[in-house]
Amino acid sequence: MTDKFKPRIALVLGGTSPEREVSKLTGKSIYEALKFLGYEVKVINPAYGTNQPDDVNKLFSKEDFAGISNQNYLTCIASELFDNIDLAFLALHGKWGEDGTIQSLFELRGINYTGSKVLASSISMDKAMSKRLFKHFDIITPDWILLDKDQVNTSKVVELINNKLGFPCVIKPNDQGSTVGLTVCRDGTGVEQALELSFQYSNKTLIEEYIPGHEVTVAILDNKPFPVLEIKPKHNVYDYECKYTGGMSEYEVPANFPDEVLKNIQLQALKAFNSIGCSVYARMDFRLNDDTEPYCLEVNTLPGMTSTSLVPKMAEAVGISFQELVNTIIKLSL
Fold first, then answer.
1. Ranges for all domains in the chain classified under CATH 3.30.470.20
2. 5 pLDDT exceeds 90?
3. pLDDT band at 150 (very low <50, low <70, confident <90, very high)
4. Which residues 6+ apart lie within 8 Å of 239 measured at CB?
5. Which of 48, 70, 231, 304 could form a disulfide with 309 if both were Cys (CB 3.0 to 4.6 A apart)?
6. What is the arithmetic mean of pLDDT over 167-172?
7. 121 three-state secondary structure
8. pTM for this structure?
9. Catalytic: 178?
């Protein structure tokens, strides 16, 4: 991208997933950065179809402006709203945003977009598939069990957990983010309720070995790892409340571990990034056990991008401002 060429950008946010409120926060921060950088930007929520509000602030509102549906994505992207757009900057989170669906629609329309392509996006939202690839590429990941919604017998599931994983364990939807629908079960008594919660959000549930220790994460930008960031949540798990409520978590970047441990985490993050074919940028989440072994939990191909989110914190630690980060993502995506 030359200095003379300023791409016209559609900032795509909201959507229909349970994470759409967080997506709007991400979108607002990116919008402010894009305006600061002098880009011509149009804000679009595909869940509204062609019924977009005239007031841009309604697109950032916590409350939905109008009725939303998955069908509206098709109408929206096929419409004149995306005429003369050079790049779609994706600020979506969750299903239909991070799972390759909207990426496929943009490719059919011939529109460039930010972040990983269709295959990597779809794999990243399928936690079990990601973990199979982690195993193949010798990336340590917690052991797991995958369950279908119509094949669940609670007593048999408890027996399976005891035999394969042991308690405590983590029960969560296979294709959601932001710890939506996640439960840590200390024993078998909570399994039935945890499964019911998980299956509210997905037809597949992942039961995962619980790794005690530290919560750490690493972002990759242009195939280069940022410094390791440690998350210190007020709860035992970095859950939705700890992620999005001020004061519920503390962050340390670079994390305070020996250099060889930090380098190993960065190496594992880069391997995870490449194992599912990511491009441009992504964030890899880990649990670091008491022996400082990093267990890769998942890859986030569209991580949170508010000015106080984890990826901008890591960028800031190496002298990259939020505006510079947004600008770099645009350049790499083009």
1. 212-301
2. no
3. confident
4. 179, 182, 233
5. 304
6. 96
7. helix
8. 0.92
9. yes
